[in-house]
Specification:
heterodimer; A: 505 residues; Rossmann fold; GMP Synthetase, Chain A, domain 3; 3 domains; nine-stranded mixed β-sheet; B: 84 residues; Non-ribosomal Peptide Synthetase Peptidyl Carrier Protein, Chain A; 3 helices; 50% helix
């Protein structure tokens, strides 16, 4: 039995036969615009857009892209918060033979410029409300072709010569080694990830999805947006996370794609206010991007009669590696592997080859050398398989901190900001846990006493702490340390004088 | 109209619901208490707090972001404004 057949028993025959694997996003779009022309594809800011409308807007945007003089394979950034326009820009790029780089909307102007160079972008499509952050890129990278989300051109058909092996997408990632870079995914990898999202659940097509996760994250883009479009479902875009429960009350989603922290919050809120905050129509929660606590699976079923499906994936694997359709019997497992992958476990670390795997990293050549061995991608995750072939994650062998909200924090990347202070000799960002079991990011700093002595302040440590908090508060919120300690002696070090890193969790 | 003290007490109930193990520590919470640095709230807990405020006080906070809430005072100010 191959892996696709394994999932057949969880879905009725007729539905399962409609789950057809596609090689390219172009082929997928051909299918959905033919099958669902008058169905609602996206709801954004109170406006409903049908598949037909989206198809026309994509064609017009492809015309505007073509007018920029781009050539096949050129990389085009997309810089926008979640919106209908972002979906349109992304789809127009990847159906034109270009490569879309979905950039996180929280990038500041300087980082945006840096990323445009790192990814060798030829063009950048942007949302109008991001214009203020384009000044640096305009000045420093004048050859970059800019295109507003509102641009329209003569309608252009999709590039039918697109092949499965063509590059389609660059997703921003810290990767398994921690430095920011891009994972380059092919058309067939994106499609495999998209179709994998259909396996293992009873109801697949014509669902109602809500988009809460950012599209710059593979879980948001592939499992949420792409699988929704592939299945002819409607996707409601949440504009402000604090309004998600009001949006749920209006839209009544049947499927939610959530990180565990949000799933846990929704369960706690439902208990506190003694009502199902996720609405009576919700059947499934697809939960991933961080470890899913088994109690969530049981309590969601018991208290709200909602099936929560845990899964496992990476940016480098176009999101989905495995999903768990047998979650009540195996609540600790991240599931059964999806089709077209090969696995090898080396010193307990999971190595993968497969159709869904990235072509390679962009912007960090050394990262490719470190990430691969004999053509296998080394995930950095420690795993085991059980006798039924189900996968379990037992730990990490790399230094990335994965927060419960799914954000990945690279300690080295955050430490750079603190080490830039002249009063800091060295610093260490690490994951810690308090007495109640809450995990958080902590910082310890070794002061550079020579520099600190020059400061005209009586309480020099209080001054340093103030400076550290200034830096901390300037960081993107999820990267901020919840605890800062100034050490009175150096860190323990390796013979090569590298910091011996804490492993408290 | 609730007084600032009454709002603070209801806010404490929300904070206890978020993490019952911290009930004892919350006695000392006042308007200058910082939500992230002093109470250790993370972005998800701040979101929980904002959603709970709207439910519990039956108010609409409008287009705020969780980053608008640095101290307990900020939360009380927002609630008071909505209750007026």
């Amino acid at each position: 039995m191959n892996n696709r057949e394994y999932f057949a028993k969880f879905t009725d025959k007729e539905t399962f036969s409609k789950i057809v694997e596609k090689e390219t996003i172009v082929e997928m779009w051909e299918m959905v615009r033919k099958n669902y022309p008058h169905d609602v594809a996206i709801v954004d800011d109170g406006v409903s857009y049908t598949f037909s409308q989206l198809d026309e807007d994509m064609a017009s945007f492809r015309g505007a892209l073509k007018a920029l003089g781009l050539t096949k394979g050129d990389r085009v950034g997309v810089y926008s918060k979640n919106s209908y326009q972002l979906v349109k820009m992304y789809l127009a790029i990847v159906t034109s033979g270009y490569v879309a780089a979905i950039l996180p909307a929280h990038l500041d102007d300087k980082t945006l410029f840096g990323v445009s160079m790192m990814f060798s972008l030829k063009g950048l499509c942007y949302a109008e409300d991001m214009v203020d952050r384009l000044n640096v890129i305009k000045a420093m990278n004048p050859n970059l072709k800019l295109l507003s989300e509102t641009a329209k051109g003569e309608k252009v058909e999709m590039d039918k010569s697109t092949k499965g092996s063509d590059p389609a997408l660059i997703m921003f990632t810290g990767g398994t080694t921690g430095r920011s870079k891009g994972a380059l995914l092919s058309q067939e990898a994106v499609m495999q990830g998209t179709v994998n999202g259909c396996y293992g659940v009873p109801s697949v097509f014509k669902q109602r999805y809500l988009l809460i996760l950012p599209m710059s994250h593979v879980f948001g883009l592939i499992r949420n947006v792409m699988t929704s479009l592939y299945t002819g479902s409607s996707l409601y875009i949440v504009k402000n996370n604090k309004d998600m429960f009001k949006d749920i009350a209006i839209f009544k989603p049947t499927v939610l794609v959530l990180v565990p922290a949000i799933a846990e919050m929704a369960l706690n809120l439902s208990r506190q206010f003694k009502k199902n905050m996720l609405g009576e129509d919700l059947k499934y929660i697809i939960c991933g991007a961080a470890k899913v606590a088994p109690y969530l699976i049981k309590e969601y079923k018991k208290e709200l009669n909602i099936d929560l499906y845990p899964g496992y994936g990476l940016t480098e694997s176009a999101n989905l590696v495995s999903g768990n359709p047998d979650q009540f019997n195996k609540p600790d497992s991240v599931g059964y592997p999806y089709p077209h992958q090969e696995f090898k476990v080396v010193n307990n670390e999971l190595w993968i080859k497969g159709k869904n795997m990235m072509i390679g990293y962009v912007g960090d050549e050394n990262a490719n050398k470190e990430a691969y061995e004999d053509g296998w991608f080394k995930t950095g995750d420690l795993v085991r398989f059980d006798e039924d072939g189900y996968l379990y994650i037992t730990g990490r062998c790399k230094e990335i901190i994965i927060l419960s909200n799914g954000e990945n924090v690279s300690p080295q990347e955050v430490e750079v900001y603190f080490n830039a202070l002249p009063y800091v000799q060295d610093s260490q960002i690490f994951e810690d846990v308090d007495d109640s079991g809450n995990h958080f990011i902590a910082l310890e700093v070794v002061p550079r006493m020579v520099e600190l002595a020059k400061v005209d302040e009586i309480d020099k440590m209080a001054f340093l702490m103030k400076e550290l908090y200034k830096v901390n508060n300037s960081l993107v919120p999820y990267m901020r340390a919840q605890s800062i300690v100034i050490r009175d002696k150096d860190f323990d070090r390796t013979p090569a004088m590298k910091i011996l890193r804490y492993h408290k969790c | 109209m609730l007084s600032r003290n009454e709002i603070l007490e209801k806010l404490k109930e929300i904070l206890v619901a978020m993490d019952p193990s911290k009930e004892g520590e919350l006695d000392n919470v006042n308007e200058s208490t910082r939500l992230v640095e002093d109470l250790g709230l993370m972005s998800i807990s701040l979101l929980f707090m904002v959603v709970s405020i709207e439910e519990k006080f039956n108010v609409e906070l409008g287009d705020v972001s969780v980053n608008d809430f640095v101290t307990v005072k900020d939360a009380i100010d927002h609630i008071e404004k909505c209750l007026k």
